Amino acid sequence: MPCSVDNLILLEHRALTKNALLRAGRRVRKQSRAIRMARADAGKDFNAKWIDEMAR
Predict the structure, then answer these.
(1) How far is CA 27 from CA 31, 34, 47, in A?
(2) What would the pLDDT profile of 18-49 be if each residue is shown by its tens digit?
(3) pLDDT at 2
(4) What angle do CA 27, 31, 25 make, to 5 degrees?
(5) HSE value, Cβ hemisphere, 13 Å, CA-based, for 49
(6) Which ranges of 1-56 does DSSP label H, i.e. alpha helix?
(7) pLDDT range class, residue 3, cuts 50, 70, 90
(8) What pLDDT shows up at residue 53?
(9) What residue spans define the domains of the chain?
């Protein structure tokens, strides 16, 4: 019996850590998306300026 209880605790712990990892992964993905968006915006500004300079 104590063996199965230990297994249950272990499974629960594993599930909790898995959820925590998934949550952390989601947060990282959101941050990287935000960084990518910021980079894209910066790139647009840079390209617009560069095109303006070339057009002159």
Answers:
(1) 6, 11, 30
(2) 888 888 888 878 888 887 888 888 777 777 77
(3) 57
(4) 30
(5) 6
(6) 2-55
(7) low
(8) 79
(9) 1-55
pTM, two decimal places: 0.40
Q: Which two tokens stand for residue 55?
A: 């057009």
Tokens 């980079």, located at residue: 39
- Cα–Cα distances in Å, from 50 out to 28, 39, 41? 32, 16, 14
Amino acid present at 42: A
Place of tokens 């297994």: 7
Backbone Cα Rg of the chain = 24
Q: How far is CA 19 from the centre of its chain?
A: 14
The position carrying tokens 């941050």 is: 31
